[in-house]
Amino acid sequence: MQTSLSGTTIVAVASPPGVGAVSLLRVSGPDARDVVGRCFRPMRGPDGKGKWRPRYATYGNILDQDGELVDDVLATFFPGPHSFTGEDVIEISGHGGVVVTQLVLKELLRCGAEPAEAGEFSQRAFLNGKVDLTQAEAIMDLISAQTELAARAAQHQLKGYLGDQMEVMRQGLIGVLAHVEAYIDFPDEDIDPASLDSILKQISDTRAQVLDLLGTAEHGRILREGLRTVLCGAPNAGKSTLLNLILGFERAIVHDEAGTTRDTIEESVSLRGIPLRLVDTAGIREGVGAVEKEGIQRSRSELEGADLIIHVIDRSRPRAEAEQAKIPEGARCVRLANKVDLAGHPDWQAECPGDVSLSLHAEEARVQIEELLFRVITEAQMTTSHPVAINARHQACLRQTADHLDMASGNLSAGDSVEFVAMDLRAALQSLGDVIGKTDTEEILGSIFSSFCIGK
Hints:
Gyrase A, domain 2; 3 domains; seven-stranded mixed sheet; 13 strands
């Protein structure tokens, strides 16, 4: 059944702001045709009569209240419930100018549409059952994806892969809970509840699936936010040169004068589909002024929150300078020994100071660095081949699900009252349903009465 948030018809510009070849406005709601019809005059429709035909583009003019031409456009009608929002939707394509697009929007508002809130079209799609919450979230993930890998993961989630997994787990738990509820409410009936081992196995299997998804949380964060990669080292070690090299353009100032970089510089780049958030930091050293000292303090703070640290070492300088960086214990760190084109300092003669030795000015330097970083990232399993990767909200819900399943399993094994087991299972179902935006009460009742012979 077609529904609406408040019975209103909404409108918004769906194309990015700025100048382009074409702009797109979207109208959705029960009065979409009436609203658009008050300012749109079709020249000649595909049916020869100028009337709306589902999923056909109709050429016509948008006119103002005085009948003056605002823009000539193509309007495409998508009748509900067979539309993105599940309501009647009309998409209007016009000339892609800032002013003309706003004038068309102004006329649609004048004709009765209301301005859409942020995300309201996707929200209506969810409320009308066109997408679940995971798919709605995937829409924004796809739009904001900065790498092919992130876009692919968002597409899998948009296609319902995560939602389907949630549904399979929910249905399994609903079946378990139905047995437990039936045993509680109808203890005198000839109902043979699942054996203890069978129920425990079903709970254990579901918990294992939950933990498998929880294992993708960190990968999901990296795909959406990027791998926070901090460049650190002594002044003039080559950090800013490295940043510019990886980015492929001159982003940071490079100069022989020590202390040129006094604040963090952050840029994003894709490394073979893996998003990196590169952070160039101030060179770390002692005995500096107040301003540079503040920059060094920020450098140390960045090291604490880094996913990956690239420690750039000037092998022509004393070892003590490099050691001032003080890499946090347990941090994942790659050491680059720079300036092999210069004479090495005696401190480094007995050992190679880095995972790779190079000159950042050499032609092959960028390829060497990319290969090293890609190898480190993949070997550390900082990326995933899992079709989807959960976000922070999913993670919180699934952690609650796992905790409740643990309690249900523990209570069942300990021989505690089945009422407590049922409470834990219900809580697990609620947390699981929160991921996709579903509740379970009616489904449990339906499962009880359809799966068991409990009178007539």
